[in-house]
Amino acid sequence: METTAIETKVGYFGNYGGQFVPDHLAAKLNHLYEVFLTYKDEPEFKLEFTNLLKTFVGRPSPLYKAENLSRITGSTIYLKREDLNHTGSHKINNTLGQILLAKRMGATEIIAETGAGQHGVATATVAALMGMKCKVFMGKVDSERQKMNVERMITLGAEVITANDGNATLKDAVDAALTYYVHNPQAFYLLGSAVGPHPYPTIVRYFQSVISEEIKKQIIEIEGRLPDAVVACIGGGSNAIGAFAHFIDLPEVALYAAEAAGEKMELGKTAATLTLGKPMVFQGSYSLCLADEQGNPIPSASIAAGLDYPGIGPEHAHLRDTERVQYHPVSDAEAIEAYKLLSQKEGIIPAIESSHAVALTTKLFKNKGALVVINLSGRGDKDVSRI
Ligand SMILES: *Cc1c(COP(=O)(O)O)cnc(C)c1O
Q1: Does domain 12-50+91-205 have CATH number 3.40.50.1100?
Q2: Catalytic status, residue 377
Q3: Quick check: is 9 catalytic?
Q4: Which of 109, 112, 283, 340 is deepest in the core (most CB within 10 A)?
Q5: Contact indicator for 244, 318 with CB cutoff of 8 Å
Q6: 110 vs 120: CA distance, rounded Å
């Protein structure tokens, strides 16, 4: 599943990325990178990873032709069904890859942050599979709005630690996990998105790129050609980079990402980092972040817990600057409308995160007759009672 990474120097995408952490963590992270480079192409590692993707996760996930949505929109729309993966989202691809690295490193304790709880559940799942102890850090507000996922993590044997600082959402969960990691460097930090210090953006991209590897093969099998466009929602950027990776070098495939505009495009009410963010160091990496005049991070806001993050993965900041990917804000109201549309017209309840990508697609490709693939990052069971 090799792709042409656009890393310009190790750990950088253009000017973005890097590793802004204390020295003892840098040593740990550089070791992780070495382990990743050693194993990613090793036959035994690859076999274990692909076997588990097949038999534990249920890959390849189907590429489904959404006939009703296509008719309503006026373009041919396929859904990449990451919602059908074990645990209900794309997150499991990355957690499985990283825990196999943790196993090679002899780790016994896994820590993770979570927003919507999908990454926490996926991490608790693979930790149970590998017999490792697991602590998941989650903002208190998120733990209340995603109660079912908290219960799933506990059922899987993980310890859920609630973070009360700040807005008590994903940013604060990452801060709490990083603080724990600084004091307990023997733990393995299983990061959930293509964000944070090097090597995480590179590792997460690699394990998630299975999505675009499959899309490319499937669409050629079904339609005999590449899609005109691939659309994904974007929180930290892992499902989007996974869905884009194998198309970045193919200029005939347009790439679109839907970021969470929130209630409105105003600092404090939005999570539209690529539209409104400023370049700065945030949580271990130089990338874009929502910030005030003094450069202090401003809490994000979105109806989708999984998109509610003021930062963004460094590769996306670079893909924005180079204009290879077009980033568009989608509001809470538009996402809710798309959530209902897909539920009622296709019989598929999408995660409210993924609904942002559906909304952007119906807007951009109205009566265009285009061939479009939406990466349906997760299922919406977790959102039903709130929406
Ligand atoms: C976590 C999550 C996202 C956002 O995270 P990315 O790293 O940007 O992919 C999107 N959709 C679902 C269903 C999620 O669980």
Answers
A1: yes
A2: yes
A3: no
A4: 112
A5: no
A6: 11
Find out whether the beta carbon of 208 lies less than 6 Å from any atom of ligand 1: no
Closest-CA residue, ligand 1 atom 14, reads 306
Q: Among 183, 355, 180, which residue's Cα sits nearest to residue 191? A: 180
Domain boundaries, the chain: 12-50+91-205, 58-89+209-383
Report the predicted TM-score, pTM, of the whole model to 2 decimal places: 0.96
Structure confidence by residue, pLDDT tens digits, 50-63: 999 999 999 999 99
Residue 238 CB less than 6 A away from ligand 1: yes
**Which secondary-structure segment (H or E) carries 69?**
helix 67-73
Q: Tokens representing 263?
A: 């209630």
Q: Fold for 58-89+209-383, please state it.
A: Rossmann fold (3.40.50)
Phi/psi of residue 49, nearest 5 degrees: -65, -50
- For residue 7, the model assigns a pLDDT of 58
Q: What are phi and psi of 119, to 5 degrees?
A: -70, -35
359: tokens are 């909304």
323 is catalytic: no
pLDDT digits (tens, 9 = 90+) for 240-254: 999 999 999 999 999
